[in-house]
Design brief:
The protein has helices at about 30-40, 95-105, 155-160, 205-215, 220-235, 255-260; strands at about 5-10, 20-25, 45-50, 65-70, 75-80, 85-90, 130, 130-135, 140-145, 150-155, 185-195. By secondary structure, it is α+β, with helices and mostly antiparallel strands. Bound molecules: flavin-adenine dinucleotide.
Length: about 260
């Protein structure tokens, strides 16, 4: 484990905001976290978990110890007649993980192609796009409690997924409360990809692609390619023009309001 000092964070946030981490540690596996806990200087120090930096706005230099999650690994862990279970390290880039799954015959996440950030960041706000949310394909995740060093596993119910929401966005407010904001570092995520695969193509932009191309039975690769093309046409590339995607959440309305 190496603690780096005065590290520029501009390359590590999609806005490209100029800021520095006073100290930063790259977390490549669980042993890096164990080493931090074993060091009295860092054991109880305030910490900030950084994934791909695509859903944060830095307002200045970061004083807590930055834990930059770089845990790698992509593998099929189980195959049943009903699903493929694929595990990804939290530091894998989300889009590259989705691309790997589609290319290797484990489809199901193609509607979420080209979302920036890491696999570990994806459950935090239950990412969603083009008719699919993470929770629709989620099996479980592994994490480390940064206060106790304890490793734990959560299923979907325990993650308390909601619309762009999860237990990782809520602060624990009492002994019976399970808020994990700022407290957990997600190390690995497992996805349940249903078999047989069925296209989710009801989103208006995807229906337009079907009409344009005359392809009404798209493959997972077709949907992956269409979603990438649609997203590239809609949003500037954050590597060229810094941004954080959409800032708004869609409002929730009653069926009556919707019909109105
Ligand atoms: C151009 C653009 C388009 C986008 N489009 C979409 C979209 O279509 N749908 C959508 O839902 N979102 C979208 N986003 C938002 C963003 O990409 C996602 O929220 C993404 O999952 C954030 O992941 P990250 O690794 O970048 O997290 P970061 O920005 O690094 O961190 C975000 C939060 O998650 C925490 N966190 C990150 N990694 C971990 C971990 N391993 N363990 C514990 N906590 C962690 C951080 O502490 C922080 O609180 C978009 C963003 C951009 C810039």
């Amino acid at each position: 484990m190496i603690v780096e000092n005065n590290v520029p964070l501009q390359p590590y946030n999609s806005f490209g905001i100029v800021a520095r981490a006073q100290q930063l540690v790259r977390i490549s596996d669980e042993s890096d976290l164990a080493a931090l806990r074993a060091d009295p200087q860092w054991r109880d120090a305030p910490k900030f978990v950084l994934g791909g930096g695509s859903n944060i706005v830095l307002t200045g230099d970061v004083k807590p110890l930055v834990l930059k999650v770089e845990i790698k690994g992509l593998r099929l862990v189980e195959e049943t007649p009903r699903a493929w279970i694929v595990e990804a390290g939290a530091g894998e880039l989300w889009h590259e993980a989705v691309e790997w799954m589609v290319r290797n015959g484990y489809p199901g996440l193609e509607n979420l192609a080209l979302i920036p950030g890491t696999v570990g960041g994806s459950p935090v706000q239950n990412i969603g796009a083009y008719g699919v949310e993470l929770q629709d394909r989620f099996e479980s995740l592994d994490a480390i409690d940064l206060e106790t060093g304890r490793a734990f596993t959560l299923d979907a119910a325990q993650c308390a997924f909601g619309y762009r929401d999860s237990v990782f966005k809520h602060v624990r407010s009492g002994p019976n409360d399970f808020g994990l904001a700022g407290r957990a570092l997600i190390t690995r995520v497992r996805f349940r990809l249903p078999r047989p695969w069925k296209a989710v193509a009801g989103y208006l932009d995807l229906e337009r692609k079907m009409a344009e191309t005359g392809n009404f039975t798209p493959s997972a690769q077709d949907i992956f390619d269409w979603v990438c093309a649609i997203r590239r046409a809609k949003l500037p590339d954050w590597r060229v023009l810094g941004n954080a995607g959409s800032f708004f959440k869609n409002p929730t309305v009653t069926p009556e309001q919707c019909a109105d």
